[in-house]
Design goal:
Length: about 160
């Protein structure tokens, strides 16, 4: 039987600890192995010591405090580990969203330049923006911003 790959998240680790606390004697070794594997990633060489702390946490106040302290360190490490794994995906999503907005703005300005009759045709900007799912002010702002990028419209003068 293939060994299941453990999940390296704080929630999965808490679940394993709860499972270990409620497990019968025959299930404990498998759960302890999974916990050791996760703990070894966070703190190499500490897996067996952590299981000992888990077993002795009810023996004395010092053991309980040490167990809670170590458990919290591992949970913190797992949260950082998950954040590092998510970071490239979040950056890619942000870039993709920015690229799609830039492309939308380019299309809107191209259509505006093709159809415009004067320099400040607000109604046309609003109509074009509505077709792209933008409200009035967002449509005007997006088209004006893209026109400024292209050098076709000067920036608004500062208010006095």
């Amino acid at each position: 039987m293939a060994k299941a790959k453990p999940k390296y998240s704080a929630a999965a680790f808490r679940g394993l600890l709860a499972k270990l606390a409620a497990a019968k004697a025959e299930a404990r070794p498998a759960i302890e192995e999974q916990i050791k594997e996760v703990v070894e990633l966070a703190s190499p060489g500490f897996g067996a010591r952590f299981i000992d702390l888990f077993r002795k946490q009810w023996s004395s106040r010092e053991d309980a405090n040490e167990y809670v302290y170590r458990r919290n360190l591992i949970l913190e490490w797992l949260a950082e580990f998950a954040a590092v794994k998510r970071k490239p995906y979040a950056e890619k999503a942000r870039r993709d969203k920015a690229d799609s907005k830039a492309e939308r703005n380019r299309q809107m300005v191209t259509e505006f330049l093709r159809r415009r009759e004067s320099d400040h045709d607000t109604a046309l900007k609003i109509a074009i923006g509505e077709r792209h799912g933008l409200k009035r002010s967002a449509a005007i702002e997006a088209i004006d911003r893209e026109l400024e990028k292209r050098g076709l419209k000067s920036a608004k003068p500062p208010k006095a």
